[in-house]
Amino acid sequence: MKKNKITTYKSLILLLSVLVFTISCEKWNDSDINIDPDKPSDVSMSLILPGIQQSMGYNLVGNNSVRTNNIWMQIFEGVDRQSFTEGRYQLTAADTGNLWNPIYTEMMMNCTLIIEKANEEGIESPNFEGVAQVLMATSLGIGTDLFGDMPFTEAFKGGENVLSPTYDGQESIYTMINTLLDDAIVNLNNSSNTISVSGDVIYDGDLDLWTKAAYSLKARHAIQLSALNGNSAYTAALEALENGFTSNDDDMLVPWEDANRNPIYQFMEERTDIRMGAYLIDLLLATDDPRLPFYAEEDADGNYSGSALRSQDAGASYPGPNLAAFDAPTKLMTYSELKFIEAEAKFVLGQTGAQEAYEEAVAASMLRITGDANTAWLDANINGDPVTLEKIMTQKYIDGAATNQPYADYRRTGFPGLTLASDAVISEIPLRFPYPQAELDYNTQNVPSVTLLTKLWWDQ
Amino acid sequence: MKMKTTLSGILTLLLAFVVHISYAQEKAISGTITDQDGLPLPGVNIVILGTTTGTQSDFDGLYTIRASEGQTLLFTYVGQKDIRKVVGAGNTIDVQMQDDAQALDEVVVTAVGITRSEKGLGYNVQSVEAEAISVKPNADLVNSLSGATSGVQIVNSSGEAGASTFITIRGSASITGNNQPLFVVNGQPIDSGGGFSGTGGVNTSNRTIDINPDDIATLSVLKGGAATALYGVRAANGAIIITTKSGKNLTQRKIEFHTSIGVDVVSNLPARQKKYAQGSAGTWIGGSAFSWGPEISSLEYDGDTSYIWDPNGRLVAKGTGNGTPAQYYDPFDFFQNGYQLNNRFSISNGTEQGDYFFSLSNLEQTGIIPNNTYGRTTVRLNGSTKISESIKFGANMAYTNSRAVQIQKGSNVSGIMLGLLRTATTFDNSAGYEFADGSQRNYRNGGGYDNPYWVANNIAYEEDVNRFTGNINLNIQFTDELSLNYNTGIDWYNTKYVDRFKIGSRGNPTGYLGEYMEFNSVFNSDLLLTYRKDISDKLDMSITLGNNFFSDYNKFLFGDATGLEIPDFYQLNNSSANTTQTGTANYRTSAVFADLQVSYDDIIFLGFTGRNDWATTMPQQNKSAFYPSASLGFVFSELGDLKSDFFSFGKLRASAARTANIAPVYSTSNYYEAANGGDGWTGDANGISYQFPYQDQTAFFVDDDLGNSDLKHETQDTWEVGADLRFFKSRLGIDFTYFNNTNTDLLMAVPIAPSSGFNSVFLNAAAMESKGVEISLTANPIKTEDFSWDFVANYTQFTNIVTALADGVDNIFLGGFTTPQVRAVVGEEYRSIFGEDWYRDNNGNILINDDPTDSYRDGYPMTNTAQGLVPIGNFNPDWTANITNTITYKNLSLSFLIDIKKGGVMYNGTAFAMNYFGVSERTVNREVYYNTDGSIDFNATPEENLVVMDGVYGHIDSNGDIVTNGVKNVTPVVQDQEWFTGQGSNFGGGPSSAAMEPADWVRLRDLTFAYNLPEIGDVIKGGQIYFSGRNLWIDTPYSGIDPETNLGGATNAQGMDYFNSPGTRSYTLGLKLTF
Prior knowledge:
A: mainly alpha; two-stranded antiparallel sheet; two-stranded antiparallel ribbon; B: Maltoporin, Chain A; 22-stranded antiparallel β-barrel
């Protein structure tokens, strides 16, 4: 018994020491175990930049943006399922999150991070900052032309515990777009730069092209205020575009490739619910426009045809290679758009050069889309044909397929004159996108109350 | 047809055994059994130890049994002490049983392996009979727990072989985290996760499927906080404690062989219309998505062989074709019988010095969907030995290989049910799914959805899991009072899967390959020092001190590729578009704990536990947390003269505890992650539409889920009270429990406005409450020598309300679609389903449009898109109940389990979408004729087609306001194509609320009919032949498939049916033999 007791006490001591060991055992519970070995805690600017650009190319001019508003613009026609429903102007808060979220969390949040990194002491990189500012302005610009008021001054501060940012009025958003672009122009031309721009899939670090893009975007947003500001809008646009794009080579395009395919291409592969709209195709058919086979595939009968409004004609032409080839680049802004802006501004202001700008715009469009000048067709249909606002806007509409500009211009100018869908659930073509459910749910106190018929600030 | 051969072989074998009953050198032993007072005791069980041979005493206490000299007879009876008698030279053995003070003292295994007498427990623990689990035809043992206890909710996601199962105990304790219980096998916590699948993809298994159900010796369900408190940070969801078989208590070698063969057949299916052909607006259109064509009876084929989509050609009006009439094709011919063949073998023995148990098992299962299979092979060796009189050493080791081939399901252009159910009525998917050039033949003439036959043959998700679990156990009995127990073990497994899409699928037109490898490792170590002391005659105490180390490590490597260059060659390099990902999850915890039990005179049982945990996933300042519990069992029937022939036992229970949950790994800080995204419309199998490498670059985004360095442990405070009352010599028992769980500081990724730059931030934000009652009734109304009837019923009713979410957040997305979706919403039952609804008046009546000038059709309701998503139901039942009857007559026994779920609704998105395509049965009354003014021609339109929508007249004015006079709608309308492709379906813009259906059920979940074999010759000591059936009968108002289903598998988002794969009915024939 005695021996047994000794064993017991020995064991007890052993056990107690183990228990004490446990408590002091910091090694087992080392905090470093809670560091994720598969994710970096910091990355360089050049590793952030291409992600932003890719997301912009896929989302800003993709299936949650231009697919919907180009259905409304009758460039596309929704023949089935959700695309059909959207064709009668049903678009709800549940539908817009897939556009809004990447604008904030992928594009502008990461632009903010680049801007912060570009200002780090000792490694100031104004050129990188300038590129990020242009991208930020592009995203904010396309965003506000669809949504109107948006959070900006209080946005991207989740890390500082600002979880429900207030909304800035569209007027101040427009001011901020211009400030961003003005700052960008200064920064892009700053020669005291430490880290040169790389990882850039749009302009491969060409600062001149980024500067041109900044001016061109200023022109886009200047003319967007035409209904509001009248002539001063046109003047501002003309002033900006002087330093803008000078050829199709300057276009601000996001490339696609085998491993990452064009968004409309992917939609047609997986969903197939849209066809070309009859309104656009009929316009092209009327003049036997050479852009037709680039905008539309042949239909079942070997012709080009659009699905008539609300007809659900699934046999109509699929979107063609310029819009929906797997490697068709998506357009953030083009030279042709800028020339149309010039033509419109000069025309409305009564300045000379409107005709030339119009002709150059269509020629640029023709060349970009078909790869060929098609001079004969231009001579027969465009060149020398006295310009009117309607002609400018109609050609701009044709040129702008699969971009957000036809919808922005339609609300601003009323061109082209489109018919309301017969089964429309509202009385006009929507004047905006609704705010997404996540903002309604988690930023309830700030999100403006709107309907699809609430006008944007520049549309008042 | 291999199965058939096997089946007939088994039948022959069975017959041979039954006929060949021969008697060995045994003799008849007989005797009388009396109780303490000398009165005859009927119904006493007598078995020969080490065999399954047994009998019962008759009404006069008499028994006879054949046994050999040297064998031991074991006499058992509820409320009496067990008695063992060795068969000697004589032929008579009389026995007097003794009342057992601890008779009701079933020992149950509780937290960290501490065994306790059930009699004194201050909380509810239910044990499930292992024998019942072993004869049920479920690969995953969790399915076999369905209906076996109270307080446990189990939802099998579908009838596919290897499909997942979702289990929760007493509701949910976490908003977005794991709500499934901890599984512990032989003291070793094991990984039971997996089985969630999203709305598309495939159903995968939970890792509980890796356990061979035949290896289970005991299974107890620890429900409340006091029961699980010693598991500390892993205790909040309850625990399932499994002990596997051993050779203990055996006196001679025992070999068991168990074989069973089963057939699964598809159960409930949605009804389709068979009257109208493919097409639209009454016209046949080849390749049309719709079945809104002409009447099938009016059509015949044109026989044009140049029309590749149908071997019979196009459909044309009768009299204009080749005379071959059009016909309806039944898409459900696609389903086949599923078979399962399950063989189990074990050998075990025990001696004074030690014992062993060795088992082998193999299960091969084919599903109701062609090429869906599941297989499992297990090996187990459990052993223990005495190193000295006071030192015992044991080890348990198990290896499992689980292999599954899963087929696409759900909301997915390749989904089996999606393709089958949308297929036009006059299109025969089975008439070839592939053309000579390898392109696909489907009802959309190459567009739309994959032909289900193409899917089953060309897309496969093949999963292979190799798993080893093992633990060693050292027990030192220093003195009678002091003992030490050390238990440590591992759970290691590798999961690999290959996900292959042949070139030409609608979702992955250029082909897809996903390759996944995952390594998981759980380590656990428990050291317990226990001191027991009988302080006085009446006062006993025991105290246990312990510590625990635990680690959980997971690492995966995933690569995928689209754009396969060489067809049918599945290798990541066979593409220029491949990506890779890796991920790690690693955490550790350590703990010290103490357990104190005091009992007084078998009347008062007091228990206290305390545990302090440290977890690496928590920030430094909050690493440590303390969890106490206290429980009281008051056996009041021991007081005075309360006990009588009528009243046998009475106990009141009360307990309270605090338990917890820790944060997920790596949630205390923020990282960058590989840049990629999806737009909700396009993308690969994971919804990724764009990713890197791209343009020869790689890229990162800042993680859009913000971490938080101030996280605290989640806290669960629980209390429960209960009573356990038994009557008529314990032949009637009722057990009642009321429980209340309050969960606070629940961690969640709180969704925030995306304009903050992030989609969520991790916070201790939410609170939830779960409270309810559990009632169990056990009865043994009839018990005679030959016949007995046992009855067990369980009733569960509880509410599980979300009481708080983060500031400014009134709901959390748990799963589902943009509409409907499953959410956690403050003040609502957890897992409420939200969706759009009709416009309604203030009294909740649906508004029926009466404004001829607006764009809505008059006489129909209108979807209120303006108000967004509103609560439209909840899958959670009002109550559930189950009743098991077991009737035994001599060697025959019949056991059946009726399972009732009352209340709860489910989104029947399947039917809602079928409306749009014109294939659901409810679209059949579509024929309508109009007058020239556009009004319905009531003379020509068949009367059965006229319906009056339920609601009141009203409309929406130009301000969006509701205008109604409250008058009940009486306008007859027709549910025609315009209605169903409009607001009568999801795609047409109809509200999800219109697709909610009650998902109640009463079902015959299990039925087992068994014949217990007597001893046969020298070799066969006993056995059983049984027939077992599952879901033989289901009564439900749900119009789709078996409503025990879930789209996302084992996830918190329950109540979604969107082209889910159907459930099954199973028939199994089995044979168990003991040698």
